[in-house]
Design a protein that fits this description.
Order of helices and strands: HHHHHHHEEEHEEH
Strand content: 15-25%
Helix content: 40-55%
Distance between the termini: 45 Å
Number of domains: 2
Number of helices: 9
Number of strands: 5
Largest sheet: 5 strands, antiparallel
Strand order of the largest sheet: 3-2-1-5-4
Length: about 250
């Protein structure tokens, strides 16, 4: 059963999905020269970060969340009928078939939103996962009173200049794929559903070790302020004598 979706998150998900649609157009352009499966497969693998970013945005749409049970059934059928090594191409070709046979533009949009995440699900796992990094995610100024999130391993550990009490601890599902123009996808603590933040990303910067350590110290302070464990923010307890200073 799908969870209720607020009007604000619905509006934000529409914006995020529109940005993902632009990425999808670029993906189609790259795949257009492929004449067969052997030519399409390496392109899909090379575009894995883009595919995952698009899928994250589509999963956050109310349309996808309302069809979660249907999606699970489709995925179950694929995994029952198709060998693991063939599922990525199967999902891609199934998406293309649903799009080409859609009776209207609205049905085509629905096919893309509901079927594209299957392609991401069947990408091979990253064989070289990166160590935890701290990134500064800067948002476009849309009148909000915070502009920078500091995210470590998918968890917000600091927020500037305001609203830290609200945002620290939020889970970010698409940190690895963020770039300017995209939208951060977070997990709603109320519904456990993926929802996009309504402010587009303006810049993404990976912090050096020294600055990252300083921000992690702020994260530990936030854990104390919020009354949560540092481990819940993905952080290790501070070494004795280590302290952070507010910027």
């Amino acid at each position: 059963m799908s969870a209720p979706v607020s009007p604000a998150s619905t509006s934000a998900s529409i914006i995020a999905a529109a940005a993902a649609d632009e990425l999808l157009e670029g993906l189609f352009d790259k795949l257009e020269p492929a004449q067969n499966d052997a030519e399409a497969l390496p392109i899909l693998l090379a575009e894995a970060p883009t595919i995952r970013s698009i899928a994250d945005a589509y999963r956050a749409t109310p349309m996808f969340q309302r069809a979660a049970d249907q999606y699970a059934l489709i995925k179950s059928d694929i995994e029952r009928e198709v060998a693991p090594e063939g599922r990525l191409l199967h999902a891609w070709k199934w998406l293309m078939d649903r799009m080409s046979n859609a009776p209207s533009g609205l049905h085509m949009v629905a096919a893309i939103r509901l079927c594209f995440p299957l392609v991401a699900d069947y990408l091979p796992a990253d064989e070289n996962p990166t160590a935890a990094i701290v990134q500064r995610i800067t948002f476009k100024d849309c009148g909000q009173d915070f502009f920078d999130w500091y995210v470590r391993d998918g968890i917000v550990i600091d927020c500037q200049p305001h609203q830290g009490a609200m945002w620290v601890g939020k889970q970010v599902t698409n940190q690895q794929y963020l770039k300017p123009g995209l939208y951060v996808i977070i997990i709603s603590p109320e519904t456990d559903a993926a929802i996009p933040l309504r402010y587009p990303v303006e810049a993404v910067a990976t912090l050096g070790p020294e600055e990252a350590a300083r921000v992690e110290a702020f994260g530990r302070k936030w854990a104390e302020i919020k009354g949560v464990t540092v481990e819940s923010l993905g952080l290790a307890p501070a070494a004795e004598g280590l302290a952070g200073e507010r910027r």
